[in-house]
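We were asked to recover a plausible sequence for a given structure. The inputs and outputs are reproduced exactly as logged, with field labels preserved.

PROBLEM: sequence recovery
POSITIONS: 92
GIVEN STRUCTURE:
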């Protein structure tokens, strides 16, 4: 019974959590037309901070897989921050 539970839990890895949460949220908010509401802006900032945090935590690990995902998260936070800043400066 524990083996089945372990097999089901293998695909639910905390390493992949930002791939399913923060990156789709930021992508959707970049594609969204119109100005941001205050809730959307705070969600955008929190998702970027979550990517920075998870990237910093993962790059401190010794495994190569964790470091690769950590650098992916840090680069995506940088890209989302730069694109969000360009959109914000373009609208004002």
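RECOVERED SEQUENCE:
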């Amino acid at each position: 019974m524990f083996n089945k539970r372990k097999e089901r839990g293998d695909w639910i890895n905390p390493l992949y959590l930002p791939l399913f949460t923060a990156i789709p949220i930021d992508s959707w908010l970049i594609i969204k037309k119109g100005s941001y509401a205050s809730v959307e802006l705070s969600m955008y900032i929190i998702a970027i901070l979550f990517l920075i945090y998870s990237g910093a935590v993962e790059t401190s690990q010794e495994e190569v897989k964790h470091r690769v995902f950590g650098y992916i998260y840090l680069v995506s936070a940088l890209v989302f921050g730069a694109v969000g800043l360009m959109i914000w400066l373009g609208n004002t």
